[in-house]
Structures are given as structure tokens and as C-alpha cells.
Amino acid sequence: xxxxxxxxxxxxxxxxxxxxxxxxxxxxxxxxxxxxxxxxxxxxxxxxxxxxxxxxxxxxxxxxxxxxxxxxxxxxxxxxxxxxxxxxxxxxxxxxxxxxxxxxxxxxxxxxxxxxxxxxxxxxxxxxxxxxxxxxxxxxxxxxxxxxxxxxxxxxxxxxxxxxxxxx
Length: 168
Fold this sequence. Notes:
The protein is α+β, with helices and mostly antiparallel strands. The protein is 30% helix and 22% strand.
């Protein structure tokens, strides 16, 4: 299922999800991005046609003609190609989200399906956040219901979250 939830509105008929994000500092972006994609993203059916442009530009560092325009479509304002969020299909989670922030940091996210608003899902989110922080050397983590991915440090600090740890 392709996750396309700009903002925090839940489309009618779609069960809510808890989004778990970790903040990876700019100096740690390259290896973290490759590892996150390899481990969590369904690369065979990523769900967004701009995924290959993203990989060429940010993982392989060999963008093709037209990649910048494709990635600019992902930004909130349509102008800043280096600040955006990419919603993808995940291998074992409800969705995967990759955000490039204003600061050049990564916000890596995974969504957990929570149709019953179960307390166990919040516990699972807490465990997942801790694991992602360790795995990617993240400096902070947040989680919340239908939480939009922060695209800057100020958004990270201001975002209402059910769970929060560390800094970003």
C-alpha cells in the first residue's frame, strides 16, 4: 500500500497509523540512507515513481537529466528540491518515509498500522524508535498518530508527538 499522507489528515477509510521518526545528523547521512533503504524499503515496488531519481541523486550521487525536476515535485513549496519527504512502501511496516531536511539531515520514518488505537502499538512504536536510533546513530526520535515528517530542526522541536527522546 502506498502511503501518501501529506500533512496529518487521514483519508476516509484509511486506518490510522503511528509514525515513528528518527533524526540523523548531516554527517551521518550517506551510510544511513543506504542502510535504511536496503533494510526497510520495498525497492521492487517502492510506491513512488520518483524513487529511482531519489536513489540516483542521494545514494549513488549520479543524478540523471530530469531527476532534479522530479524531486522538486516532492517539496512542500515546489521550489526547494533539497527539502522534501518521500513516502514509500515498506518491507515489514505500514510505510517508510525518508525526509531530507533544511539542514541536510535525514528524518527516517516507519509507520505502524494502528486500526484499533491499541496501547500495544504505542509500546511497539517506543521499541521501534529506540531500535532505529541505535541502528542509525540518530540523535533524537519522535512518534505520533499520523505525524507529518518534520522538514527542519524547528519543525522537529515544535511537532506534537506522543513519544519524544533526544534532540533533533
